[in-house]
Amino acid sequence: MKQQKLLIELMNHEYEGDLVYGAIAFTGGFAIHKYEIDGEEFVSNQSFYNVIFNYFRDIAELNDVHFDVQRSVATISFCRNKVNLLAHLKNILKLLYEYNYNEQFFEMAKQNTIDSFSKKYKDEKFRGMYKAFEFADLNKRYTLAQLIQDIDSITFEEFKECANRLITPGNTCIYLCGNVSDIDLSSLKMDEYYDKYYNCISVVGSSFDSYLREDAHILNVARKDCNIQVEAFDFFNKEISNFGKQLIVETLSELVLGTNKNVWIDAYDSSIVYETLQLKSYKEQFNELDEQKYSQINKSLLSKYISLLENMPEHFAIKAASFMTVGIYIDQYISFLSECNYDLFKELNEKADYKITEAQVALRRELA
Predict the structure, then answer these.
(1) Residues 336-364, mean pLDDT to the nearest whole number
(2) What is the chain's mean pLDDT, rounded?
(3) What's the CA gap between 17 and 23, in Å, rounded?
(4) Which residues is 74 bridged to in the sheet?
(5) What pairs with residue 272 in β-bridges?
């Protein structure tokens, strides 16, 4: 069995009060149900991360931390004084890797997940986004119906099996930003978790024929009108890295006029999902990116990352740790972004050889 080391990245940056902001990220989310673990396929319940995070929300051992589950990544974030940082981080990891789960607490967490999802599902924007993800995450075979079924059907035995296979050192990425230049990470010894596999974990998808994917328009009944749009990118050049995909998709996302933008790339799916007042096609507009527009976008993206680091460091750590799960390191990414001129971007964009397909999810009070 190949051993995968615990991944930790540091960003040295001074914050008031000698605070350090951190995030722990796991590969997996509500859109993923198949993984390859040490060469074998493992089928997970899609609601697992939602349930386990609700489980930990209800126990006293994990306080003052924030949990979040996205389509393909699940994160735990926190803020601590530098003096207490390593002890706090070690306690979190020990709890995650060694916790003895209780069936009664599991049932409470499951019910909390059902109640929370049911409440959010009544909101048109939430429902529209989760429906749009079916198109955005097509190659991972995500469906909203399967997620709903999994929330209702997850069992305690299934929950424990998922925790044992997915909450492991080999599926953990940690990012810390703050005054960390002299932090000694040697105390975070993973050898004590000898009974936990250092799994090599990756997501399993099943790619559709990209040439056959077509634009889609989905119309559903709702109490309020809502528009969700998806720009899905299929990359034909298999040599293009996630790093390159992120640069292309994130840059082009700045041309989109929408709110609540959700940009995500992984080995199987790359997309921009957003809310918009008016449904329209952006594909032609993407092709019209000139040097002046690119320069404005490039400066805007750099400014956003710097602002995130300075003003919202916990969110910066979450983004950085999430990047790590798909093999992107944020310091390298920002550095390349700062040096990537229009000609270099244009060359990368052409070599990537991709197709954009659009989906529009329209929720209407009355169907015509």
Answers:
(1) 94
(2) 90
(3) 19
(4) 26, 69
(5) 231, 263
| pLDDT number for residue 358 | 95
pTM of the predicted protein model: 0.93
* 8 Å CB contact between 178 and 13: yes
Q: Residue 361 CA to chain centroid, in angstroms? A: 21
Cβ neighbors of 79 (< 8 A, separation 6 or more) are 19, 20, 21, 22, 64, 313, 314
- At which residue do the structure tokens 């296979």 appear? 165
What would the two tokens of residue 116 be? 């929370």
Distance CA 159, CA 50 (A): 11
Cβ–Cβ under 8 Å, residues 66 and 23: no
| pLDDT at 366 exceeding the cut of 70 | no
Residue type, 223: R
The total number of residues shown for the chain amounts to 368
Query: CA end-to-end span of the chain, whole Å?
Result: 58
- Cβ atoms < 10 Å from Cβ of 68: 16
Q: What tokens were used for 338?
A: 């700062």
In a 3-state reduction of DSSP, which class is residue 206? Answer: coil
In a 3-state reduction of DSSP, which class is residue 120?
Answer: helix
- What is the predicted pLDDT for the residue at 190? 62
Half-sphere exposure of 336 (CA within 13 A, CB side): 15
CA distance 44 to 366: 38
* Token pair belonging to 270: 């790359």
What span, in angstroms and rounded, lies between the C-alpha atoms of 233 and 51? Answer: 31
Burial of 137 per CB tally in 10 Å (0-12, 13-18, 19+): buried
134-180: pLDDT as tens digits: 999 999 999 999 999 999 999 999 999 999 999 998 899 999 999 99
Whether residue 60 has pLDDT greater than 70? no
Spatial contact of 142 and 130, defined as CB atoms under 8 Å apart:
no
Give residue 215's identity as a one-letter amino acid code. Answer: D
User: What confidence tens digit (pLDDT) does each residue in 186-197 have?
Assistant: 777 665 654 555
For residue range 265-276, what is the model confidence (pLDDT) as tens digits?
A: 998 999 999 999
Q: What is the pLDDT of residue 221?
A: 77
Query: Which carries the bigger pLDDT value, residue 282 or residue 354?
Result: 354
Q: Which residues pair with 359 in a beta bridge?
A: 216, 230
